[in-house]
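We emphasize that the prediction below concerns an isolated chain of 261 residues; any contacts that depend on oligomerization or on bound cofactors are therefore not represented. The input was used exactly as deposited, without trimming of termini.
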Amino acid sequence: MNILDKIIIDKRKEVALKKALIPIAQLEASVLFNKATNSLAKALRESNSGIIAEHKRRSPSKAVINQSVTVEEVANGYEKAGVCGMSVLTDSRYFGGSLDDLLFARASVQMPLLRKEFVIDSYQIIEAKAYGADVILLIAAILSREEIKQFSELAQSLGLDVLLEVHNEEELYKSLMPSLNMLGVNNRNLKTFEVSLETSKTLSTLIPDDFVKVSESGISNISAIRELKPFGYQGFLIGENFMKTSNPGESASKFIKDLIA
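Result of the prediction step, given as a token string:
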């Protein structure tokens, strides 16, 4: 069993418990539920840098990344740096995140926020909206075509953008549908954790131009972005590169200045 399988088993238990504790009607009554959303896809199309910067405390592959900065400090720093959006990990068991992180980030900044989560139930999409997200992530590796359709259409009806993540050709073909805004190619092999930008390059020609192309994982330097831009990528998700420094916002600011110089 790989790490993704383990995460999903635990996630099903976690979501079942939440559904028993907090009914959907309560989520829909949240102050943020009717807030207008900011489109990340639009921000990426209009940007020179295309950077989506992440808030991530730890990960199964790297253990602790950064436990010392608050999510508000990170969010404010990223917004000042001029990133297109911020990805907020809300999984607690494996990544040390929480829905409160999303709430604190939303209270701090205006830029688009992506709830980075292992979505296996429509409940989590309503939850994302209630906690101030603008975008949800769907992972093709853990969902059927029918689930992708159902979840992405629900997200769109709530005004949320959808970033659909694939790792290979099979997942990509299964997932193509009009209710997605962005197609993300994850360069990390989920079974071996090895990272290769070739994955993004190979799949780029198979992604229709209607979708904003996003490359994820293994992007730690400017040359990687310059290498991927000719393949039509407009978004670049940077997970650990900024977070592993003492001041993620400052690191993002320097990175973006160098990138667009």
